Every structure is written in structure tokens, then in C-alpha cells.
Amino acid sequence: MHQTKAVLLLSGGLDSSTLLALAVKEGYAVNALSFRYGQRHDAELAASQTIAKQYEVVQHMIMNIDLRAFGGSALTSSVPVPLDRPVDDNTTIPITYVPARNTIFLSFALAWAEVLGANDIFIGVNSLDYSGYPDCRPEFIDAFEKMAHLATRAGVEGGGELKIRTPLIDMTKSEIIRLGLDLGVDYGLTMSCYKPEPGSLACGRCDACQLRLRGFMEAGATDPARYASGPARATGVSV
Amino acid sequence: MHQTKAVLLLSGGLDSSTLLALAVKEGYAVNALSFRYGQRHDAELAASQTIAKQYEVVQHMIMNIDLRAFGGSALTSSVPVPLDRPVDDNTTIPITYVPARNTIFLSFALAWAEVLGANDIFIGVNSLDYSGYPDCRPEFIDAFEKMAHLATRAGVEGGGELKIRTPLIDMTKSEIIRLGLDLGVDYGLTMSCYKPEPGSLACGRCDACQLRLRGFMEAGATDPARYASGPARATGVSV
User: Fold this and answer.
1) Partner residues linked to B5 by β-bridges
2) Roughly how many angstroms between the first and final C-alpha of chain A, as a whole number?
3) Domains, chain A, ranges and CATH?
4) A-B Cβ pairs (cutoff 8 Å, strict)
5) pLDDT tens digit string along A44-86?
6) What is the pTM of this model?
7) What is the ipTM of this complex?
8) Do A100 and B157 touch (CB under 8 A)?
């Protein structure tokens, strides 16, 4: 069977792992792209490798880029990751925002897609991230897609239009989890935590852990991930 | 004096060196950004360091990114760089095109600009490159600028609009050279060649050398760069 080639941004977290399961289900030949970008831990990269292998992607590439050189984020500098923060406070952009990260990630995906002759780039942005990060919003994705078409050979020579695929963009975290469970995703392999403890144990307290735990609760499911403090609970949600 | 901060993409070639001289003349506090991206030689990076130092930029950062992992270009793979090619043949995109390179470079510049609080990004694209490379065209730059605004804090929180500054975009190579000579640029320090020979001698035969040599000829000036084969001449131009 001739499969449609795609490039997929895989962080090893819950969203991008669900995205991978979905793209594979839809029949894409997936080339997965991850980044060692100066994040403070390698746990999510280890997760991305396990998941890429499980889904038998065509290739899994890990690019090294040092966003620590710029700083400006709790994920790439010594600024503390906020813990136990009310995750519904979306009035300001969180300090975990990494400036232009998705722009950079999508730009590399674009380069690879052009070399591979792929017209589809998958990225697991969704409406929950959207609430805080500028580069998870639909209007950003639309603008990137327009720019990407003009940036490449197809914009001059004609040919396939590049599409940025964001099937999770309008879904809540619990809807993503339900979709993933239907697709058979093993969420025990995924790593969402911004600040895991030794042994790749999720902290249960950073924004990413809280959103994830609340998502599982709302989905009526149990998170199989291993947490540092036993059965973790989402802040501010009665159980 | 409070200066306006800018990020400037500096390759060490003729165009970006002229661009730097112009931005400094206009009073910008320049943060120069160069890339070790897997190009086959370090001569242009060495040139960028010399030039950045001469113009006393605020900072000069060299980012390491490995575009060889993707391949797809004579500049980042073992595909030969074309020599003695008629440089007016603009019917196809040259094999020296590096997929999505300017998109990637501008994305890093965007990240740095956001961290620095700079609203101006300078890139030395011009109409000659435009003839061959999709990501040197004005419509690409416009689309990138729109995307960039949506990608960053300013797109959510308001504040300064990011501008991609391309003062050379409508100039011919000879006009750029005349501008640079007026600004006092020492073109002997710059390196344009795609395939320099040992000792950082320009080959005089690749597209970049030919366009440069023709530009100097049309500007009525002598190129002070050192060429491998003595006084080099642009192909197809009577002297």
C-alpha cells in the first residue's frame, strides 16, 4: 500500500502520543521529529523514543538545538517551574512558555517535509494549551501554514500544498484522553511533567501534571503514569 | 543614548555584512545571529566573527543546528556545488537551495528577539537571491512577519509589532556593493563562496562567487576578496 508521508512533532507527552496513534490509524507513513532543545530533563525524550518504536514510525529523528542560549523560560533556564498553580488562571502567559518554540519546531518539520516530499505536518496543539501559549492558537497555525507554502519549492514551482494538521486543536484534555484510550494508547509510556523527579516520576504539581490529572478524572479514567507522591490529584477539583 | 534593539542574521557574506553596516549606521543596537548548520566549510562563520567584532555588536551568537540530518541541498550534503553555471538561469531552483533555511533562521531570530524585547529582525535577502530561492521573496517575508506576530507574547498581550527588516530586498548586487562601499564596509573580510579552497580562498566559480564578481564589475569596483585563481572574472560578462 502506498502511504501518504507525514512529519509529526513528537514530544513524548500525552497529546503528541495520541496524535501519533491517530496519524498511524489514518494510514500515514509517519516520520517523527523530536527535539533536545535544552529542556531540563530527558524523560520526555526517552518517552518519545519508546512511543516512536511502539508505533513503528518510518524514522524518528531527534534534533539538537540549544534554546538555553536564549533563555526566557522556566523550561530552559534556572527559573523555577511553578507548582500547585491554579491551572485555570489563563490571564497571563505562563513562565513555562518557551519563546517561539513551536515556530522553531514547525520550521524544522517544514524543512524535513520538503526533503521527504511530505505535504502533511502534524502537531498536537490543543485548546487547553491555547489558553496560555500564543503559539498554540488556531490563528498562529493558519498563519504558519500560509507562510510555509511561500517558503518552499511548492510555492514557486507549484505542487502539493503543505498542510499543518492539528486534529486535537479543538479538543479538551479529557476528550484527547478518551480518543487515545479508544486508539489503545498506553499512557503509562508518556511523560507530560515539566519537572520529573529521579526515576522519571511525574511531580503531579506542575501545570502539565495538573492538566493531565484533571483530564483523566474528567474522562473517568485512571492515569497509569507513575507519580512521585503516590496517587496524585488535580488541584482544585473535588474527587 | 538609548538604542533600539535588533536581531540581525549575519552569515559573513557580502549582503549580511552590508546589512550590519547599515543597521549600525541607523543606530540599532545589534545582536548578531549566525548558524553552524552543517555547511561544508567554516570560512563564512570565521568571516562573521571578524565582522561582528569590527562593528562592535552587542552580542554575536552562533547557534549549532544540524541541517545535514535532513540533507536535500548541495550546501549540506555530498551533492557537488555547481561551478561555472550561467547565473542568469533562474528557471529552476538551484541545488544550493537549503530547504526552509531562512524560515528556520528567522524562527531562531524571533525567539531571541522575544527574549531580548527587540521588535526588529534584519535579514539580508535581496532580489537576486529571490530569482532562485523561494524563501528570499517579498511575499515570504510578509507572510513570516504576520505569522511571527501571532506566534509571540505581543500577539496575545499587545505591545510592539515585530518587523522583519529587509532593506536590501529590492537592490541589485551592484547597488548593495555601492551602498556598502559608501558605508565603509571592508569586503575583503567577507566570504560569499559556497566552496572555498584551503586558506579561505574563494573559488570564483560557484553561483555566489559569480554573482559577487559581476556585482563588483557593475559597481565599477574591485573585489578585495582573495580568490583561488588570481583575479577572477564573472562568467559571461565581457570586461
Assistant:
1) B29
2) 48
3) 5-186 (3.40.50.620)
4) 143
5) 899 999 999 999 999 999 999 988 888 778 777 777 778 887 7
6) 0.91
7) 0.89
8) no
